[in-house]
């Protein structure tokens, strides 16, 4: 070992000792909480305590790592060992989408989904395969240049201001979309653990984000993410192993869950033939027809609904009814749409939802089916099969390529001491991610088995308390309604959102509350770790890559760091405001950000690394074309945009769903970049520097 390597080795050993003590302390706290629960300590104390304790650990790391040194703030001093950078990258990667929503996506969409849903397995394969692209095509080459941000690469490689500006704008757009999803997850967990309103939960969780990224930048964020990875690993593996042991007598869920998949297939066949389920489907069809009739005369129907609600409220007051019924009737009146335009939007969505839930199995595909339709069936079935398979492959492509272009992820590989350690850290990150991803399909199957065996067929008079509690947080997460009026829960009467499956797993499986608190803390850790990196990326792009170079170049490095911190605070508050509006589920928001990253960055990034003929004009044209096309496709097919402009049903190209539209942006961006570069070959291209950076 050389003299230069000895300090780095001592640093790695010291960090290893600290991490070991931290892990042992965390396990001791979990055992103490389990003992306290057995002794009768209230859940109202245990949940908030664990939330507060974990956030305070992150805050302590943030305070310890505070810095205004540019190297430390932007790239953690370029001294993070490969194994810990891999662990931090895995935590950065295991966002609210992976931890909270991925198992839910597999629960709702099955392995390969339907015509309109690509299927949960596409996320597992796409996100895992993306790290192979990062290791082979991107990470070592970026580290060799010794830069700070992804827009820096575009300025150094292509020269001029516009490649940098476009990269910075693209980083802000896709990172902001991503961070809104994380803050939504933070609010969801904090409100459930503390009992406060969703919006207050967002602000509570946001404090933990700001204490880390605001004070110490990449230095504090890196070590916070290492601590968070330990929590989210335990929080995921403990409940899935517990559930597997409870059902199968084997805690190795990825190995054993196949038996339950066969049980689910049998239960699905029984549900398809169930008379009670068909009653529920018929009722949803009647509701859809009522909405369809109301949409033929929106103004008249709204007036009739308002008059009927006012009459019910008047009668209840005259009869001296129970105050709770009066309050419920008043809320029903206030919940009516304010004007015909709003009524059209609400009733259109309600009709579409009723039509979807009128399908067999509550609109869910068969869990183990290989794509929708039938390749040997009728023309309609063959078309459904092709569209389903096309969407599956398109989304998997977007997630793989988007991984290779996410700015907050690629910045992590600037923090290692050498190019070799940058490549090694990708390998470590892939290992740490696979530990969880192997268990995700198993968790979805085990939870669906629990629902089919213990919730379906139970009495509405004995519903589990977790259903009521989660419905208070957000009715869109959990809804169980006696549609056919028989007093029994049918599968078609259960509505579970993708974001609830993982969080409710301990309660669905009747585990101790300490496991519920651990899962919530793990989800919070996943959301916080990614939000830290995203907010840092956005603020750096705004201040370092745009403002300080185009508006105020006289700023010194320390001033840029201070300004970045305040920009981070402003972006965090704006993202919290958007997240409080609950714009969409976590998984679609995250998928959209991957399509944006793939189309904006990857063509020009990979061409710039491997093709000396790529020119500045080609990069600018390719990035612009990819970003504009992907953004347009996402917006024009968004439900709220189409409802606002009266555009009717979405117009999909080749049946590709909006979240997978990056496949069009990547194709167009690559084509435009190559054509424009070839057309301007008389310009002498800039060549990527090849020297090793210290």
Identify the notable features of this structure and list them briefly.
two-stranded antiparallel ribbon, 2 strands, 694 residues, Sodium/glucose cotransporter, mainly alpha
Secondary-structure class: mainly alpha
Runs in which pLDDT lies below 50 for 5 or more consecutive residues are 683-694
* Shape assignment: globular
Q: How would you characterize the largest beta sheet?
A: 2 strands, antiparallel
Task: Say what the CATH topology of one domain is.
Answer: Sodium/glucose cotransporter
What is the CA-based Rg, rounded? 26 Å
What would you say the CATH architecture of one domain is? Up-down Bundle
Number of strands: 2
Strand order of the largest sheet: 1-2
- Tell me the fraction of residues in β-strands, as a range: under 5%
| Order of SSEs | HHHHHHHHHHHHHHHHHHHHEEHHHHHHH
Number of helices: 27
Return the average pLDDT rounded to an integer. 84
* Quaternary state of the chains: single chain
The share of residues in helices is over 70%
**What would CATH call the class of one domain?**
Mainly Alpha
